[in-house]
């Protein structure tokens, strides 16, 4: 009889065998990473608290990373860059803020201009400021104020699209948080007055924003609806006079249990990909990761599906949720990272999976970070089309937190071989 044996080039023992296998290949298979580099610390801080990394990647592979850091005795935004795809990093550049800064976000804009925003507490105990800065031609510009408020700010997110810099954030003006939005034309200093994106009776938190190739905004967030949280979505059309928002929709309408920590990406075909964590019924601190995809032109039927083998137990040391992050690469490749403990893990680790069919199926989870004495969380993810880049926060002794980074090794093509077996 005749059998078809599948041989992976990734396991080939020599260059000769690789060449022979390639010559014999009759059908193309899938691309997979050979593995990941050993993680390295990039925060360069000692006994300081480095928190909340955010990553932005240029098409040429240059990397930009930002977080908040207490090296000087207070939290300030810090920035580093790599021009060799993460093998070496610059020294940390500090934004001297006053007195304390939180939740710095970074995004890449037109002409590789970088945009960042963060919030500060000033004039204690009442005032909070949402600030913004941009980096062009290798240097950071002046600090701008987007809004000043007497109430609490959480998790700003910034995107440049259609000639405007756009910011969304959560603001607790009354008894709960609502989503607010402001924008300015690029190369100007004038921000519009904040407007509601959502005005609900529940708290709207963990907002994440992205843009599609046609210049439209897409936002997901967690709506704290009792007894379970829901994941919501809204889109915005950025016009010359104003940004017009669609009606919000519930992504998790078909999901039974509470959902947290959403993230969104839009691929080059105009398909939105949303990931979020879902509580596992009856299991304490246990979550699965779910994925939902839908054309941005048709949000009528959204059916989230479980990412296979994604279940994790989350500790109380870093985030108490799986904090999944997604990145789209080409028409079908979707990359995913999240944090938590699987199997015999001692502490939370960063896990990675990839889908080559738009999220229909997923690879087995791969642990990017080590199973050491320290928990890992709050991952950030990006791809330059060749490598995947991940950074995360690692908690160590006391208030010491560090930022770690790793990238995937190059792709290998798995090829199906037609070999005869005459048994």
Q: What is shown here, in short?
A:
The chain is an all-beta fold. The protein has 1 helix and 33 strands.
Largest sheet: 5 strands, antiparallel
Q: What is the helix tally?
A: 1
The proportion of residues forming helix, as a percent range, comes to under 10%
Class of secondary structure makeup = mainly beta
**Proportion in β-strands:** over 45%
Using only CA atoms, what is the Rg?
22 Å
Your description of this structure?
A hairpin with a 4-residue loop joins strand 30 and strand 31. Helices cover 2% and strands 50% of the residues. Strands 7, 8, 9, 10 and 11 form a 5-stranded antiparallel β-sheet that branches. Strands 16, 17, 18, 19 and 20 form a 5-stranded antiparallel β-sheet that branches. Strands 21, 22, 23, 24 and 25 form a 5-stranded antiparallel β-sheet that branches. The N terminus and C terminus are likely disordered. The chain has 423 residues and is an all-beta fold. It is built from 1 helix and 33 strands. The chain starts with 14 loop residues before the first helix and ends in a 6-residue tail after the last strand.
Keywords:
mainly beta; 2% helix; 5-stranded antiparallel beta sheet; disordered C terminus; 1 helix; 423 residues; disordered N terminus
Topology record:
Blueprint: H1 15-24, E1 25-33, E2 40-41, E3 50-57, E4 63-69, E5 76-82, E6 93-94, E7 100-108, E8 114-122, E9 127-136, E10 139-140, E11 144-149, E12 152-161, E13 164-172, E14 178-185, E15 195-196, E16 204-211, E17 216-223, E18 230-238, E19 243-245, E20 249-250, E21 259-266, E22 271-279, E23 286-295, E24 305-306, E25 312-313, E26 325-329, E27 333-340, E28 349-355, E29 366-367, E30 376-383, E31 388-395, E32 401-407, E33 411-417
